[in-house]
Design brief:
By secondary structure, the chain is mainly α. The protein has five helices and no strands. The protein has one domain.
């Protein structure tokens, strides 16, 4: 039985074509902006008349980021959704830097952008975790939450009422 080629989640040729079309639209809008205001628009960010990024490109960024987050070195982080969001944000931020004349591989370009966005998010979260642990250490508390066994022994009326409600519902 012949091996079937796997279906890729992002088609690099279609992505390249969409990038070329988008860059053409941006170029036309840029010329109109220059004619209207006699100055160059900012390279990044929103400026009057700049076309929106097509849904297809946004979907590709989302797919690339999502699939990259499943790699073993990224899969176990609690903040994976933040990593994916950062990756997509950076793709949108640096979409104007992709030049089809230099490279015919936008998939690799955006994958690298997302990869480094993931690494930056991991570094930020590690710093935040260090700050949290230092705060806990400096306060002098050994534990963040202390459970008093006397309150759970059944002497507390609130504890008994909760226990009774649970037993009543389970009947």
């Amino acid at each position: 039985m012949p091996k079937k080629k796997p279906e890729h989640y992002v088609n690099n040729k279609e992505l390249l074509e969409a990038m070329i079309v988008y860059r053409t639209k941006v170029g036309i809008a840029r010329e109109k902006f220059i004619e209207k205001y006699d100055k160059d628009p900012p390279k990044s960010g929103a400026w009057e008349g700049k076309p929106r990024i097509p849904n297809y490109l946004g979907e590709c960024f989302l797919k690339i980021a999502t699939h990259l987050s499943y790699k073993p070195n990224f899969v176990n982080y609690m903040f994976r959704e933040d990593m994916i969001s950062d990756g997509i944000e950076n793709c949108v931020q640096y979409i104007h830097n992709f030049n089809p004349e230099k490279s015919q591989n936008p998939f690799a370009y955006f994958t690298q952008i997302i990869h480094y966005a993931f690494l930056r998010r991991i570094q930020k979260e590690k710093k935040q975790l260090e700050i949290k642990t230092k705060i806990i250490e400096r306060t002098g508390f050994d534990e963040v939450m202390v459970i008093d066994n006397n309150e759970l022994s059944g002497n507390n009326s609130e504890y008994n009422s909760i226990k009774d409600n649970i037993q009543y519902r389970n009947r």
